[in-house]
Amino acid sequence: MNKPIKPNDPIVTHIYTADPSAHVFEGKIYIYPSHDLDLDGPSNDNGDQYAMEDYHVLSIDNFKSSCIDHGEALHLKDIPWAKQQLWAPDAALKNNTYYLFFPAKDHDHIFRIGVATSPSPSGPFTPQETYIPGSFSIDPAVFVDENDKAYMVFGGLWGGQLEKWQKGTFNPDAAGPAATEPALGPRIAELSDDMLTFKEMPQEISIVDEDGKPILAGDEQRRYFEGPWIHKYNGYYYLSYSTGTTHCLVYAMSQNPKGPYVFKGTILTPVVGWTTHHSIVQFEDKWYLFYHDSSLSGGVNHKRCVKYTELTFNEDGTIQTIDPYK
Ligand code: FUB
User: Fold this and answer.
1) Which CDD domains did the record assign (predicted)?
2) In testing the pocket of ligand 1, which one of 37, 85, 226, 303 has its CB within 8 Å of the most ligand atoms?
């Protein structure tokens, strides 16, 4: 039965979903979320409780119809290089092929980013034998620009291991910068034309304040934590992300996809649950924010549900702040 999906309601309730990456493919909204498991166990700052093993692709014809779950699109057991923890994915269309990008820990417990392909936006996706060479950390988001150049932005602190890559190789003992030093930024790299490798070494994105000064690591209301997303509006690139410990979705703007980005403000105030993670998509003539909270499980951090709400730009290109519970 067709049941319209109301804003700020879970788009599906039969499984736990999170980290929604939404795209318009073939005239519909396709959502590529994490599939949270209904497991109970110890929780820690390393994120071991996020033990996901597969991906389901969801789609919405329009907001008057219900959300379709296309079933399992990729499973951990079919990814040769991956050992555990299929975290936040994204998808892109190029070369008449759909690409699913996803992080997972390899057999050395190091997060890497893999890619899988399909002729259909709903999968199933066939993974490559190895992860993308030179990839690390979590939360890949792929932005395909109007000139067809594709960029992957990625990275996450703490369990996402970004701190451990500050010198270019994995240092399991590395800590983040001191509170008075510039915060770590997400990484960005242009993808090769076949979308399977990086065309260049990933570089760090700089996020600065209105005076051009770097946002500092101790500025937890504004500094980058995880969950990057790039979209373009009126010629400007928008980098939005989670502030982690302060639980907001915030954004910064630039005229260059690689930055520097100037911090602008908050998109979404804190949701129920520790994590917050989103995507921004235009469908027909409106813009939407897809996000998650933990309301479906009564607040269990690792049992989340994807929701959506409309996003509004002001005349000057800034974004109106959303409180999802008002
Ligand atoms: O879903 C696992 C992790 O939680 C994601 O990779 C982060 O962005 C956070 O949402």
Assistant:
1) GH43_CoXyl43_like (cd18619)
2) 226
Distance from residue 166's CA to the centre of ligand 1 (Å) = 20
Task: Say if pTM beats, i.e. exceeds, 0.95.
Answer: yes
Give residue 147 CA to ligand 1 midpoint distance, Å.
30
Q: Which atom of ligand 1 is nearest to the CA of 139?
A: 6
CATH of 16-311, one of 2.60.120.200, 2.60.120.10, 1.10.3470.10, 2.115.10.20: 2.115.10.20
ipTM entry: 0.98
Span 131-145, pLDDT tens digits: 999 999 999 999 999
Distance 18 CA to ligand 1 centre (A): 8
